[in-house]
Write a structure and sequence with these properties.
This protein is mainly α and 196 residues long. Helices cover 74% and strands 0% of the residues. The chain contains eight helices and no strands.
């Protein structure tokens, strides 16, 4: 009985790790095939990381975001100025999207106990998205100030430059992702609830 339980636990861990990897790859594919500029991200490329975070929790979400950042580098899709900037913007920032998982348990409980409350489901999922996206863009803002500020237009401070670029990117990508989350609301039970 202990052996069977151990095998089941290992199988569940493997399933979670496979999902983490699959969702990171989906984010990468969306990132590669939906073009965006630095300041305008009409894209929902972080949606798979948000979904795995809501589905499996914060740690799998953080791992999936971290892996997505690594994959950006592996396929040559990273803009690297320095090692510090690379680590901050691709590992830390992308991993923090996984903080959406802090609302995993409340969302799952609401899906189970109040399945008809679609608006509440969307509010919980959307709040998780905003938490993860905001954390990501705080890191991008810091990196923008430290590393990209030298590219600010003449007479504009590095702080203002980084703020303007990142608030635009944060707003557009978060709103686009929220729109898709709303469209997926009817599928939350299948996407978010898992047996183990």
């Amino acid at each position: 009985n202990k052996i069977k339980k151990g095998i089941t636990m290992q199988s569940n861990r493997l399933r979670v790790l496979m999902e983490v990897a699959i969702f990171a790859v989906i984010s990468l594919i969306l990132d590669l095939f939906i073009p965006s500029t630095w300041a305008l991200n009409i894209s929902f490329k972080m949606l798979p990381v948000v979904i795995i975070a809501l589905r499996r929790g914060t740690i799998p979400g953080v791992l999936s975001g971290f892996l997505w950042g690594f994959l950006q580098f592996a396929v040559g899709n990273a803009h690297i100025l320095t090692i510090s900037q690379f680590l901050l913007e691709y590992f830390v920032a992308f991993a923090l999207i996984g903080l959406a998982g802090v609302l995993s348990v409340p969302l799952k409980n609401t899906l189970r106990m109040e399945p008809e409350r679609k608006t509440k489901h969307v509010v919980l999922a959307g709040t998780g998205l905003v938490i993860g996206s905001f954390a990501r863009y705080v890191i991008h803002f810091i990196a923008g100030y430290i590393f990209w500020g030298q590219y600010a237009p003449e007479g504009q401070s590095a702080v203002l430059y980084s703020f303007l670029v990142n608030i635009s990117a944060f707003s557009s990508e978060t709103l686009t992702t929220l729109f898709v989350l709303i469209l997926l609301a009817q599928s939350y039970k299948r996407l978010i609830l898992v047996e183990n």
